[in-house]
Amino acid sequence: MATTGDLYKGAFLRFNNELVQVLEYEHRTPGNLRAFYQVKMRNVRTGKLAEHRFRAGETLEFVRVETRDYMYSYREGENLVCIDNETFEQVVIPKVVLGDAIRFLKEGTNLKISFTDEGEAVMAQMPQNVELEVTYTEPGVKGDTATKALKPATLETGATIQVPLFVDNGEKIRINTETGEYVERVK
Q: Which residues does 103 contact at the CB level (< 8 Å), separation at least 6?
């Protein structure tokens, strides 16, 4: 059986009969008290965050997860249909597993999807950066590159982000999918 010493960021655990993913953990030894692990976790099914203190050396139930590459094809209600890049089999996953990054998802995007031994999708991860076209933003004015002022821009996926003043309609820009921030213009 694994213990708290085996914890790592991104690990999947069975906690209170629920599947959770470790987001952060910290080993603490306060003064003359016993050591413990402060763990921040996300429930895979509901997306809710929880924190828990585990005693040092406490046994944990780790869940084995397999990750494979898939290509996003289309939406089907509350689900996403993806195609395995090796076997070309279709899989249907709930869009909740993608999290906030779903607003930057367009057809043909490669995803890393993690499945449990039971075949349940527990996590999907987009590439760090994606290139999207700006469909609408206020026109830029020549010479607006000196300041770091930002303006709203609507992307081809329908998401709205803040971009520098010099970005115009029809331009392709690179976006960080984790933070949702503008990175650079794509030539």
A: 157, 158, 159, 180
Nearest-CA neighbor of 26 among 12, 18, 44, 38? 38
What lies within 8 Å, CB to CB, of 8 at 6+ separation is 22, 25
For residue 80, how many other CB atoms are within 10 A of its CB?
25
Q: Which residues, 6 or more positions from 140, have their beta carbon under 8 angstroms from its beta carbon?
A: 165, 166, 167, 168
According to the CATH classification, is domain 2-62 in 2.30.30.30?
A: yes
Tens digits of residue pLDDT in 163-182: 988 888 999 999 999 898 99
Among the CATH numbers 2.40.50.140, 3.40.50.620, 3.40.50.300, 3.30.460.10, which is that of 129-185?
A: 2.40.50.140
pLDDT surpasses 80 at 145: no
Reported pTM: 0.72
Residue 14: enclosing H or E segment and its boundaries? strand 12-15
